[in-house]
Write a structure and sequence with these properties.
Blueprint (H helix, E strand, L loop, with lengths): L3 H15 L4 E6 L20 E7 L2 E6 L4 E5 L4 E6 L9 E7 L4 E6 L7 E5 L22 H10 L4 H6 L9 H11 L12 H26 L30 E4 L4 E4 L1 H4 L15
Antiparallel strand pairs: 1-6, 2-3, 3-4, 4-8, 5-7, 6-7, 9-10
Bound molecules: zinc ion.
Zinc ion binds next to helix 6.
């Protein structure tokens, strides 16, 4: 699932390719992707996208009418732009064709938890949009605010970071890196995190996201990001490998639809947690 760094780089690459071009046609190949009926999706024909923003994991295209086209890529959706004359592909869910023959395309590469497309008058009518928490690079993202959020609910730290109500834009992969960076266990209970640990967590969120953004920006240059790139990550996607900091073996906990990777020595005081599938979970 694309997270904040990927979405930021996608946004940067898409903006010059899709803004300010008259939309002449829409092709909806996967009608279930379009989640709203009023205004009708066809009402974007004849308009241009005037702005392109990101909020959490939502990508927002503003329209001349004041309406917004909002895309959430969910598990396996993607956004791309095609040049004049490039043929549509089988995985294209919704395509917005511009007068010059180029297009903006919502691609769906999976079969479940599909990308969602909303056309709305008010952003607040997009499900979960209003509940998105603080943007990590906004001025409001202070250690005090993060600490306050951590105290509101007893939950595991990794689940807290992924939960979009508190911090916007983080997902499964980047949170593994962030927690390793600050040496905190993904299973630590939020209400036990000290203020000092919160300060370090905030610094790690900034450092890891910035590292990801810088890397992806170098990777794509003037092009478009085509997929997630976790190649720079030290924990996520590396179970069984050696921790670069202490030499211990990177551990894994698998859930039904995701995995957590962490260093038992650096993050959980040497404790290797039982795999949840085995029915033993602490
Ligand atoms: Zn380690």
């Amino acid at each position: 699932m694309p997270e904040m760094p990927e979405l930021e780089i996608l946004r940067e690459g898409l903006a010059p390719r899709v803004l300010d071009r008259p939309i002449v046609r829409i092709i909806v190949r996967q009608p279930s992707s379009v989640k709203t009926f009023h205004p009708p999706i066809d009402s974007v024909i004849g308009q241009r996208f005037t702005g392109l923003f990101r909020r959490g994991k939502f990508v927002i295209f503003s329209l001349e009418s004041g309406d917004s086209l909002v895309v959430h890529l969910m598990r396996s959706g993607w956004l791309t732009a095609r040049g004049t004359g490039e043929e549509p592909l089988a995985l294209d869910a919704v395509s917005f064709l511009f007068r010059d023959g180029s297009s903006l395309v919502v691609v769906e590469r999976g079969s479940k938890r599909k990308a969602c497309v909303y056309l709305v008058r008010e952003l607040s009518s997009v499900p979960f949009f209003s509940g998105v928490g603080v943007e990590p690079f906004s001025q409001d993202f202070t250690a005090e605010r993060l600490f306050e959020c951590l105290q509101t609910e007893r939950m595991q730290l990794k689940s807290f970071l992924i939960d979009q109500r508190f911090v916007a834009g983080l997902g499964n992969a980047y949170t593994d890196e962030i927690l390793f960076d600050c040496g905190l266990s993904p299973f630590k209970i939020t209400t036990t995190v000290t203020f000092e640990e919160t300060q370090n967590l905030r610094i790690s969120i900034h450092r890891v996201l910035d590292r990801g953004i810088q890397r992806l920006r170098r990777l794509v240059g003037d092009g478009l990001l085509e997929s997630e790139d976790h190649g720079f990550m030290t924990m996520h996607g590396r179970p069984g490998e050696t921790c670069p900091r202490c030499g211990a073996t990177i551990a894994e906990i698998r859930y039904s639809d995701r995995s957590t990777h962490y260093c038992p020595e650096c993050q959980s005081g040497g404790k290797v947690y039982a795999d949840r599938r085995a029915g033993v979970y602490r």
